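User: Structure please.
Assistant: Input sequence and predicted structure:
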Amino acid sequence: MVREGFEASITSLKEEVVKMMESVEELVIKSMEALLNRDVELAREVIKLDDNVDDFLESIEEKTVELIALQQPMAKDLRIIFSISKIITDLERVGDFCVNLSKEAIKIGNEPHIKSLVDIPKMKDIVLEMLINAKKSFINEDAGLAYRVGREDELVDNLYKDIYTEILMMIHSDSKNINQGTKLLFVGRYLERMADHITNICERIIYITDGDKVEIN
């Protein structure tokens, strides 16, 4: 009976992690919409919505401590609990980068973009797909999918390099591009870091599933 109660607690904990992932997905979508549409109000909404992610972090952390303190977790259970504590920290960081991105969108405001934003939305699409598939791999304990998701970080890195080079050239060619160009460089960097944290999440999912500590990429 004690063991059944513990397993139910683990299941509930995993469900809360999935909800946290979905909240972060919403932030990724809305922060990019705010930037692309120059929607300052939506950017402000993203900043407020990040509180939900922080609430999930606090709630899940409390429950992991309770599980360890009040139950008798076995080795695999500890692996799951430890990994979840790491996963939610990475999720919280993705949410923070969405907030940072939204702040750049607010600073840009209604200014016309100095260039057509093509690669930045591509980065967002990959990051969002990584997050969604990381969620699937977490739910299904699919280490193979987690590994494939983590490998997509390289695509984001390559796009960021292209953006960095292009915007630097624009800044050098016209000093008027410095202000917004710098902000767009930050946006690219935030997306690149989001992918890094999702890759960390995938590594933790592999550890939960197979017990293997791996470094993807």
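The chain has a mean pLDDT of 93.
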